[in-house]
C-alpha cells in the first residue's frame, strides 16, 4: 500500500507528494489550478473556455464532489523550500481499465525540472497498488492501464506522455456545455500489476 506522502530529492531540491484531504488543501489546489490553467490554456483554448473549465471542473466545490462521489484521489507536489506551497497537482480515479489520470499539472517555473516525471512514477506505483487492492479492474482485460485525455493542441504534454510510454488510442470531441467542446486524444499506458 502506498503511503499518503512521498518525498523526492532532486538536484539539491526536495519535493514532497502528498494526498490532499483537508478543506484548506483542496481550496489551495483549486487556486493552483486556476493559476496554472489561466497561464497554460488561455493561449490554447481562449480565455472564455479556460474560465468556464476552471469554474466547472477545477473549483474547490467540484474537487470535493469528485472525491466524495466519484472515488477521485487528489495529490499535490510541494517544494520543501516553500513550506505549504503547492507547485503541481494530479487527480486519479481507479476504474475498470486501471486508473484514469484526470489531471496532472505543474506550475510554469517548475516545468522541465523532472517533477512531472516523478509525479508519473508515483502515479504508476499508485495504479499498481490500486489494481491489486481494489476490485474495480475488469479481469477479462489483458492488462490494466493508466489512461488520460489531452487537448490535441497541447503538444508539450502529448510529447511528455509519449516519452513516458503512453500511446494515442483514439480521438474524442466532448461537449462540455455552454457552447464549448474538448477536442482531445485518449492516451493509454498499459502496465503489469505485479
Automatic annotation (TrEMBL):
Keyword Nucleus: no
CDD domains named among the record's database cross-references: NAT_SF
Domain N-acetyltransferase: 21-192
A Pfam family it matches: Acetyltransf_7
Entry keyword set: Acyltransferase, Transferase
EC number(s) recorded for this UniProt protein: 2.3.1.-
EC class: transferase
PROSITE patterns with a match to the protein in the record: GNAT
GO molecular function list: acyltransferase activity, transferring groups other than amino-acyl groups
The protein's name in its UniProt record: N-acetyltransferase
Amino acid at each position: 500500500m502506498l503511503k499518503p506522502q512521498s518525498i523526492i530529492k532532486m538536484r539539491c531540491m526536495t519535493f514532497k507528494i502528498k494526498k490532499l484531504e483537508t478543506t484548506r488543501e483542496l481550496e489551495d489546489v483549486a487556486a493552483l489550478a486556476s493559476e496554472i490553467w489561466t497561464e497554460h490554456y488561455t493561449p490554447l483554448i481562449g480565455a472564455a473556455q479556460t474560465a468556464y473549465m476552471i469554474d466547472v471542473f477545477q473549483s474547490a466545490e467540484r474537487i470535493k464532489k469528485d472525491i466524495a462521489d466519484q472515488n477521485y484521489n487528489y495529490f499535490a507536489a510541494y517544494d520543501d523550500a516553500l513550506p505549504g506551497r503547492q507547485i503541481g497537482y494530479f487527480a486519479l480515479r481507479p476504474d475498470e481499465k486501471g486508473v484514469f489520470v484526470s489531471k496532472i499539472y505543474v506550475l510554469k517555473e517548475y516545468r522541465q525540472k523532472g517533477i512531472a516525471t516523478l509525479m508519473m512514477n508515483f502515479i504508476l506505483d499508485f495504479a499498481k497498488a490500486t489494481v491489486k487492492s481494489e476490485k474495480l479492474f475488469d479481469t477479462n482485460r489483458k492488462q490494466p492501464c493508466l489512461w488520460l485525455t489531452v487537448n490535441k493542441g497541447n503538444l508539450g504534454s502529448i510529447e511528455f506522455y509519449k516519452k513516458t510510454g503512453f500511446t494515442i488510442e483514439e480521438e474524442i470531441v466532448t461537449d462540455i456545455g455552454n457552447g464549448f467542446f474538448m477536442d482531445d486524444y485518449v492516451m493509454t499506458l498499459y502496465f503489469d500489476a505485479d
